Structures
1.
Amino acid sequence: NAGVTQTPKFRVLKTGQSMTLLCAQDMNHEYMYWYRQDPGMGLRLIHYSVGEGTTAKGEVPDGYNVSRLKKQNFLLGLESAAPSQTSVYFCASRGLAYEQYFGPGTRLTVT
Amino acid sequence: AQSVTQPDIHITVSEGASLELRCNYSYGATPYLFWYVQSPGQGLQLLLKYFSGDTLVQGIKGFEAEFKRSQSSFNLRKPSVHWSDAAEYFCAVGLLSGGYNKLIFGAGTRLAVHP
């Protein structure tokens, strides 16, 4: 039981490049989330999903897209990376008691 | 608007000393309350949660937290800190907003432990 996993762990992009971050969970959770973490700002919700095939915007969705084609996977895409998207990205899934379980994070640098 | 405030950005304690990390929230109803810990380079790990009932909740690693409705607070405590407790701690409020359950996080408190 791996919980929540994320790939890759690190990535460096040039401005304008695209990439996809993959999140996988093996707990059969319906809800999944993508957050970004920046110093002094805690975690901010980018997008979330309430089940396979459904996604919705969170607090800071601009510049990101997501897809949930399979229940266990939640993908976060950056179509045209910007330096402001340099951050640590965390995926989470939600249990029955509303607690969220987090992955180890992806550290992204956009130059 | 709903918010979570952690007034202390950094706290330093000596190993073996007691610890209290403060958390205040702004929300009209009784929220779900959580404390998470994040070690350097790691994801967030759930320490404890409060939904209802006994206002003093026990968590992992010897931590406890007390919900005080009158003060809108959910402070985290540990009677004797260990060097391995050095990490960043996040308080979070879980609430229903826009038809979905979400967490609002405080900005975090970084704990340093002196030997």
2.
Amino acid sequence: AQKITQTQPGMFVQEKEAVTLDCTYDTSDPSYGLFWYKQPSSGEMIFLIYQGSYDQQNATEGRYSLNFQKARKSANLVISASQLGDSAMYFCAMREAGNTPLVFGKGTRLSVIA
Amino acid sequence: NAGVTQTPKFQVLKTGQSMTLQCAQDMNHNSMYWYRQDPGMGLRLIYYSASEGTTDKGEVPNGYNVSRLNKREFSLRLESAAPSQTSVYFCASRGLAGLRSEQYFGPGTRLTVT
């Protein structure tokens, strides 16, 4: 069963606007971690932000923040003040407790329009 | 530090040919992973090695074999390539066993099987 769901195959946002990329997850493990990665057209995978299931506050890293709603099992990425360089694929991923690999969603392609 | 390196960057194979994708990391990481990325499918785990001397199947292991040659190197072998194995292959590694530790990715290998 798919553990990470990203329902938006593609999104458009105007430059300087904020955008939210959706991610829902499924796990019965009380201890887990959620990650967001960016993949620009050059192909490399860039780590953006992490949220732990027991973290009291929503994670923030510069213009990236995570809207973590544990009861709804959602971990949406918010990008503020979008820039043209934010155009990329964005992947949500989860790791459950133990030395387990990341499981990825199918991704959302974000296009920033000038 | 070079991080995670992969060779080759590009490869074209004919159906039935074999090849080995090489991956090495210089970060003294314990865990290493092989993913494939296909359009609309996100990254799917092929095999992983939680530590030197161990390997485990991921979500899509059929048609592949792996070898954890030493702590640095983790290779992926296609014994008899099929067009369905046309994909971009990513190797990744992770050092700490905790939830928070990110996976570092190589630049990818683009493989085409004709």
